[in-house]
Amino acid sequence: MLGTMPDLLRLLVVPVFLWAAWRDVKTRRLPNRMWPPLAALGIVLLGWDLWATYPFGPLDSLFLLQVGISVFFVAPIGYAFWYIGGFGAADAKALIVLALIFPTFPSYLVSGVELPFVETTLGVFSFTILTNAVLVAVAYPLVLGLRNLVTRQFSPVMFLGRPVSVDSLSTRHGSLFETPDGYTRNGLDLDALRMYLRWRGTTLSALRADPDAHRDPESVTETYPVGDGSVDDAPSDSPTVADGGAVVRERPEQNSTDYEDPWAAEKFLNSLEWSAYGTTPEKLRNGLDLVSTREEVWMMPGLPFIVPMFVGLLVALTYGDVLFGVLGAVGLV
After folding, report:
1. Number of H helices, E strands in the chain
2. Which residues make Cβ contacts (< 8 Å) with residue 97, sequence separation at least 6?
3. Pairing state between β 175-176 and 178-179
4. Do the beta carbons of residue 305 and residue 90 sit within 8 Å?
């Protein structure tokens, strides 16, 4: 593979984003320390490109325009979508990093073939990565629907969710797509479910074995740190395992199931210093009622945007801009 040294160094991002996509799928958590070195690399490579093209000329004006659009338009898109809740913090940082590292189209000669194949007129490569990623994200519901169709899992929400066994929820990420009353797109976040189980020092299997005992708020005596709900982040000073805990309490005597605070949901949320992913007492109770009585539920797995971002990056480095290529094929550009 041949290319300029800055363009070759830009390929260092590919294995990093591959690891980030894999980790985000597995844990929904990425370390903050990974972003500053990538941002620094982008700044260094930008300076290298500017130094290599000095003194300035007409082509350099186009380069500066491309850099300006990437840094002052594409990068803020990541922040804006994080601000309104459309992106996670890691997704926003990833897009900002890509805007710094790939402001213009790189060029690679592979076996006599120059990549990428399709370049846009303006030539802002980070914007190409973003549009490719959006197309991949849009295709994800089609993949879900096809999977459910093949496995004969028919449902009004088959393009947005998938059925899973309740016993497997302990190690899954996403949110419930159901309540006891039917489908909902505002179901209980599974990270919040793990936080609740850790707070009680119990497990999902124990809760399912005796839901009446856990529904009684008086059964909550000693509580434990909750962490952030990630699968591999059980607090060290709580008796927890991967699904939230390992302590099974004996069922207390009780005279009524008409509790003021079933499941101690309100008590749990009031004990937190921050919102458990938008969970309300009602949402938590509905989720607990569901998982304590069902063997299978529909869940919304959710796709971390860094995954389509990584795929969009690979496609951009090889094929180029998918949207521009399609529009060109039908004569619109």
Report:
1. 14, 7
2. 13, 35, 38, 39, 42
3. unpaired
4. no
Which position has the token pair 């919040």?
A: 192
Phi-psi region of 316 (alpha: psi -120 to 50; beta: other; left: phi over 0): alpha
Domain boundary assignment for the chain: 5-142+304-329, 162-300
Which residues fall within 8 angstroms of residue 44, CB to CB, at 6 or more apart? none
Using a 10 angstrom Cβ sphere, with 0-12 exposed, 13-18 middle and 19 or more buried, the burial of residue 16 is middle
Using a 10 angstrom Cβ sphere, with 0-12 exposed, 13-18 middle and 19 or more buried, the burial of residue 191 is buried
DSSP string of 155-202? -TTTTT-EEEEGGGGGG--SEESEETTEE-SS--BHHHHHHHHHHHT-
Residue among 301, 267, 136 at smallest CA distance from 199:
267
In this structure, what are the phi and psi dihedrals at residue 32, rounded to the nearest 5 degrees? -65, -25
DSSP 1: -
pLDDT, tens digit, 9 for 90 and up, residues 13-43: 999 999 999 998 888 889 999 999 999 999 9
Chain length of the chain: 333
pTM of the model: 0.80
Query: In the predicted model, what is the mean pLDDT of the chain?
Result: 88
Measured in whole angstroms, the distance separating CA 231 from the mean position of its chain's CA atoms is 14
Residues 293/209, Cβ–Cβ less than 8 Å: no
Structure tokens at 203: 């497990």
Over residues 258-317, the pLDDT tens digits come to 789 999 999 999 999 888 888 999 999 999 999 999 999 999 987 889 999 999 999 999
The C-alpha atoms of residue 220 and residue 100 are separated, in whole angstroms, by 50
Extract long-range pairs of 109-112: CB within 8 Å, 24+ residues apart. Answer: 109/1, 109/2, 109/3, 110/1, 110/2
Query: Three-class SS of residue 305?
Result: coil
Angle between helix axes 89-101 and 125-150 (nearest 10 degrees) is 140
Name the DSSP class of 90. H
